Amino acid sequence: MAVMQRIQAEVEGHPIVLFMKGTPQFPMCGFSSRTVKALKDAGVTDLRTINVLEEPEIRANLPRYSNWPTFPQLFVHGELIGGCDIALELYESGELARMISEAQKA
């Protein structure tokens, strides 16, 4: 299935990938907005985003790829980190900044 290969290529081809509703400049849901803010506050400079509202095939298939039902979905180093709640918890603990720093150095 081509869309699964595309998802895998995105996730493996960029250190930090966020599948979200909307764009970082114009998030289309509160969860995506809060996740982008946490990433920026944690020091992200190289964020690859995919707007699932403009990519219906990715929106339909990503939950099967990641085994995670909701958006946004954050991947670091090809690994699913989770959604908004997990990203915010990691941000609060300082762990998100560490993960982002390591991913951007790699």
Automatic annotation (TrEMBL):
<keyword id="KW-0676">Redox-active center</keyword>
<dbReference type="InterPro" id="IPR004480">
    <property type="entry name" value="Monothiol_GRX-rel"/>
</dbReference>
<keyword id="KW-0479">Metal-binding</keyword>
<dbReference type="InterPro" id="IPR014434">
    <property type="entry name" value="Monothiol_GRX"/>
</dbReference>
<keyword id="KW-0408">Iron</keyword>
<keyword id="KW-0001">2Fe-2S</keyword>
<dbReference type="Pfam" id="PF00462">
    <property type="entry name" value="Glutaredoxin"/>
</dbReference>
<feature type="domain" description="Glutaredoxin">
    <location>
        <begin position="16"/>
        <end position="81"/>
    </location>
</feature>
<keyword id="KW-0411">Iron-sulfur</keyword>
<comment type="similarity">
    <text>Belongs to the glutaredoxin family. Monothiol subfamily.</text>
</comment>
<dbReference type="InterPro" id="IPR033658">
    <property type="entry name" value="GRX_PICOT-like"/>
</dbReference>
<dbReference type="InterPro" id="IPR002109">
    <property type="entry name" value="Glutaredoxin"/>
</dbReference>
<protein>
    <recommendedName>
        <fullName>Glutaredoxin</fullName>
    </recommendedName>
</protein>
<dbReference type="InterPro" id="IPR036249">
    <property type="entry name" value="Thioredoxin-like_sf"/>
</dbReference>
